[in-house]
Amino acid sequence: MQRLPDKQSPFASLRRDTPGDLVFKALLALCCVLVLLLTLYPIYFVVIASVSSPDLVSTGQVWLFPRDLSWFGYEQILADDRIWNGYRNTLLYAVAGTALNLLVTMPAAFTLSRREFRPRRVLMFFFAFTMFFSGGLIPMYLLLRDLNLLDNWLVFILPSAVNVFNLIIARSFFEHSLPEELHEAASIDGANYFQFFLKIALPLSMPILSVIGLYYLVQHWNDFFTGLVFVRDYSLQPLQIVLRDILISNQAFSGGAGGAGGAGAGSYAQQYADQIKYGVIVVSTLPVIVLYPFLQRYFEKGVMIGAVKG
Amino acid sequence: MTSAATARTAGGLAPRRAPGPVHRLKRHFRRYWQLWVMVAPAVAFVAVFAYVPMYGLQLAFREFDFAAGITGGDWVGLKYFQQFFDSPQFWTLLRNTVVISVSTLAAGFIAPIALALMVNQVLGRRRKKFLQTATYLPHFISIVVIVGMLQVFLSPTSGLITRVAGLFGVDDANFLGSASAFVPVYVLSEVWQHAGWNSIIYLAALSSVDPQLYEAAKIDGAGRFSIIRHVDVPALVPTMIVLLILNMGNVLNTGFEKIFLMQNPLNLGVSEVIATYVYKIGILSNQFSYATAIGLFNTLINFAFLVVANQIAKRVSNTSLW
Amino acid sequence: MLPKPHRRGGPAAVASLAAAALLLSACGGGGEDDNALHILVVKHALTGPMADMGWVADIEEAAGIPVEWEEVSADWDQKKSTMLAAGDIPDLVIGANAVTDADMVTFTGLFEDLSDDMDALPNVQAMFDARPETELMATRPDGEVFSIPSYRRFWPQTSTRQYINQQWLDNLGLEQPTTWDELHEVLLAFKTEDANGNGDPDDEIPIDWSPAGESGFGYFQPSVFLGSLGLPITNGGGSGYFVEDGTVGNFLTDPRYKEVVSFLHDLYADGLVSADVMTQDYSAYQSVGRGDGDTAKVGFSWGWTASDRFGPQIADQYAPIAPLAADASTTDVAWTYDSYSLNYGLNTITMSAQSTKKDAALKVIDAFYGQDLSLQALWGEFGQNIEDGGNGVYTVLPPADETLDPSSWKWTTTLADNSPGWIRDDIEVTLPTDIQEAVEDEAPFADALAAIDPATDIWPGELIKMNAEDSSRLSLLHTDILGPAMQRWATWITEGGVDAEWDDYVAELEGLGLTEAVEIHQRYYDEYLAAQG
Asked: Which CDD domains match (chain A) (predicted)?
């Protein structure tokens, strides 16, 4: 009989708009348009810059429409065999990595959110401490070498298994969004912690699970430092390293003034460096953008479950 | 961790009547072993990959001596810290770092909240989704490209923003080359890039607000702004506090790569920060001990701020990290 | 940590098992146990895979065992510092200054001392005998040789050539300037009149230069105006060191530097300098120089060659012009002398002290310094890139790929300037057009360069090797000094104030350790002179 209020619009049941509402709506629309314009225009610029003559772009003559259309940048990027291998690697690291991240982070966050669990303060400190103090690159390199993780795909996954920031976010969500009565009720029904976590806490935390998952996914997607420092076998390199190499190989002459190596280096690369720069950003960002709607569907489903059960 | 060792040695001596430490420990584990199991993998990963390499911090107190190994150099105590404090650059670096990071933190803290509240008001799932997706797009643009875009948009001769500023009577603005424009340009571009992304977490919190609260507020005749203030904002407070505490631990952290790329001789007076200095010293000049010491100093200050912020939050709002 | 074994597996249990397995597998350890010679090559980013270079087979043959190439073309500095500090390097490292002097003093014991292996390196020994300065470049203060330089012979003596738009001069009926004042007038005419004749009198940029960074001066920058006052610099200025009458100085606190700065401010104040000059990146600087179609935008600038600086389409509008005199009374005009960095590659090949394939590694080093391989590693393989006419006569061929200019072609197909090698002085080579153009455009600078005696008139940074203590001290001092100095350079030119602030500035730099830095340089220079005899 009673329809669930539409979560997406808290005011859906308001039939008529008061004058105040109208002002509010107008202001809201104005703000939204402004925000959209501010965020989308520069992105649009990247896209048109990636297909326009680089000289016109860098002298500020491309603003609204692409000029002197040229696909050279994309041709260069996509003709590079390494890129497909990079895509495959990144996909593997991102998916496997995020799965491990969630597998490790969510249960830990749950434990840390239980107020009756006294050691949680010490443990939180144990985790938080590492957000600040780190031994530096050299000991890390030596450790990974001793663990046989250099030039090993697991290096993209294992060392970053726990992001303490995400752990804290998830913990805080559990703390504030899981009513204590739920746990009490579950204990009376004889549920233990495992059962409570899997059957009640987790289903209720879909919003945070998808947010944290997205955070982790993007962290893996954008990770180039691991490949840069810890991997020397090119067949293992992720997309970001490949794109960075393409980017740098075309900007190499930009630093030409710096040494004998660059002096006199040709005009060809110089001219297209910027076009490739913008092309690279489009190529590397596209998949994550395409992926988002899928994640968001999941996200919304989670929200609905939350609305029903909460 | 140490309690397990204590327990073993004390084992046989525990009196039966009063529940001794062993007994309490047994009871604790009997009750909570499942929680321990759930947190154990995370503990293990952090122990191995974060705590094991931490011995490297000694380098701040030792001479880097390659032949003798990382921990084999002569102990020099606080020499490198002293060197940093005595450096003619010290106060400038500290001031620049604090100015940049605090303004970034302040603006970067408020903007996502405002954005999330705004997006949450938009009616219609599609419009909302579009707005949300659009605003987080810039997050994915790499720093090199962001700085390249700043250069194109702010160029004193041809930049779009410079021309728009000209329409408003600001002539010959050189946003890239003036020291006073550096911090605003940096902060605003940070906000532009990350506000949408950072609002995701707040939107998640808003999505778990109990719909009955809205109904109740409406029945009470609350206006829209009033509902935002009394229903939405309180729902965000726990997340806000956690993020605020975490941010406090970043007072001396600044984005290294972006500042480095934005540096030019005209803005160097305000753009040289601890991170860029450490890079110039450590990577470019092989001064590993000095770079580690400066890094450690940075960390200690940050950590102190975090601890203080955490204590305050614990007192004031009963929310804390530990 | 767990009180009792748990039977039921949840995600957490699986993960903890995975972690445990990881910890167990950790005991493996191990390293390289194959029989291949490992060579890391720091390539230019454009350079293709080693496997595509025909001459590489000759190197592998010389090694006598299989060679594993590890190719790095980006972010070498970041990779390197970790790799070296962890002591984890391959048998050989190749690339121009891939391992620096500073690395050699920091990572003691990591690199093989080749000074006692010279019997196995006859080609290298022959180069040392024929070009003694290469031996100086290779030898540490205590006599060790950790790395061998290259010698390229045919490059010009300066990288910075000065160009003016001759067509604009002709359009306006003006003569080429010879002094600062004349330049000032010419630039004013460029600005106020429609020099490029496109109908818009305001789109001309009278003068533009390459952006100076925060760490000193480089090529294509107006630091060459110091030469107008008779002060010879090297490599565009670097950190400011120069030599005059046996005394080392630093021009950052020299009154002549002050004159250059105030002259540049005069130009800037008249709106003659590009407004982007302090903030643009190199790529924007180059783009603007290319003008718009056939219409040039820049009147006066510096570059490697006209076609590199202004693009092939408008390059012929520009003429190289001789160094300017500060005023008509100046006689001893100087220029920037860069031969040590253009004709030589510092530290191009370095060997690991831990190498277990020492013989093979030595053979590879020596092979690189053979007559034919030196040429091929520099310009590309015989047949494709070079024609071997026999009897020591060679011709570098034009690019097989017509869309590439000779320079890009070279960088794409071979190691080019990153390669070790020794181009003999007694062979005959027909040069590629890019080097020819650079040498031809150097004609107006010949007098000024001829007046510079590299033995006594310049700071020979490439030939001087410092010990660990001094080099580390200097790198610290320079980090502290150059920041404020470059900042002042930029503000004085754009906003003025050099006269009022000069004395305080000099005191500030001296307080930051400039005096000490100059003294360290002087000490090494004296030793260098003494060693020269």
From this structure: TM_PBP2
Q: What's the mean pLDDT in C156-181?
A: 95
Q: Which residues of A touch C290 (CB under 8 A)?
A: 55, 267, 271
Stretch B131-156: mean pLDDT, rounded? Answer: 81
Do residues C222 and C284 both lie within one domain? Answer: yes
* Residue A13 within any structural domain of the chain: no
Residues C328 and C348 both lie in one domain: no
Q: What is the 3-class SS of C384-414, one letter each residue?
A: CCEEECCCCEEEECCCCCCCCCHHHHHHHHC
Categorize the per-residue pLDDT at C118 as very low, low, confident or very high, splitting at 50, 70 and 90. very high
- pLDDT value of residue A310: 32
The token pair at A20 is 């105040």
> Residues near B268 by Cβ (< 8 Å), separated by ≥ 6?
C214, C483, C484, C486, C487, C490
Q: Which residue of chain B comes nearest to A176, CA vs CA? A: B238
Q: Please check whether residue C32 lies inside any domain of the structure.
A: no
pLDDT less than 70: residues of chain A = 1-17, 58-59, 248-274, 292-293, 295-310
A42 is a domain residue: yes
- Residue bearing the bigger pLDDT, B311 or A176: B311
Q: How much of chain C exceeds pLDDT 70, in percent?
A: 94
Q: Which range of residues forms the domain containing residue C330?
A: 161-337+456-532
Task: Tell me which of C383, C411, C427 is where a domain ends.
Answer: C427
Per-chain mean pLDDT for chain C: 89
pLDDT at B10 over 70: no
Q: Which domains does chain B have, with CATH numbers?
A: 2-54 (no CATH), 89-317 (1.10.3720.10)
Are the beta carbons of C483 and C214 closer than 8 angstroms? yes
Which chains have 3 or more CB–CB distances shorter than 8 Å to chain A? B, C
Range of the domain at A43: 19-73
Q: Which residues contact C298 (CB under 8 A, 6 or more apart)?
A: C165, C204, C205, C207, C208, C274, C288, C289, C291, C310
Q: How confident is the model at residue C188 (pLDDT cuts 50, 70, 90)?
A: very high
Residue A260: the pLDDT is 34
The pLDDT-based confidence of C88 (bands split at 50, 70, 90) is confident
Whether chain C has a CB inside 8 Å of the CB on B194: the answer is: no
Q: What average pLDDT does the segment B97-120 reach?
A: 92
In a domain, C227, yes or no: yes
Dmax (CA) of chain B: 86
Residue C5 pLDDT class (50, 70, 90 cuts): very low
Q: Are C227 and C334 in contact (CB under 8 A)?
A: yes
> Which chain A residue shows the shortest CA-CA distance from C85?
A138
**Mean per-residue pLDDT for C511-533?**
92
| DSSP result, B31-79 | HHHHHHHHHHHHHHHHIIIIIGGGGGGGGGGB---GGG-TTTSPB-TTH
Rounded distance, CA B279 to CA C79, Å? Answer: 14
Q: What is the number of structural domains in chain A? A: 2
CB-based contact (8 Å) between B279 and chain A?
Answer: no
A6 belongs to a structural domain: no
Per-residue pLDDT at A299:
55
pLDDT given at position A271: 59
Pair (C301, C241) in one structural domain: yes
Give a yes or no: residue A138 inside a domain.
yes
Give the C-alpha separation, B268 to B96, whole Å.
10
Closest CA to B39 of A104, A46, A101, C42: A104
**Residues C16, B87: C-beta atoms closer than 8 Å:** no
Which chain A residues are closer than 8 Å to B120 by Cβ?
A: 10
Are A94 and A69 found together in one domain? no
Under an 8 A CB cutoff, do C342 and A137 touch? no
Number of domains in chain C: 2
Size of interface A-B (CB pairs under 8 A): 251
**C319 and C182 in a common domain:** yes
> Is the residue at C18 inside a domain?
no
* Domain co-membership, C263 together with C187: yes
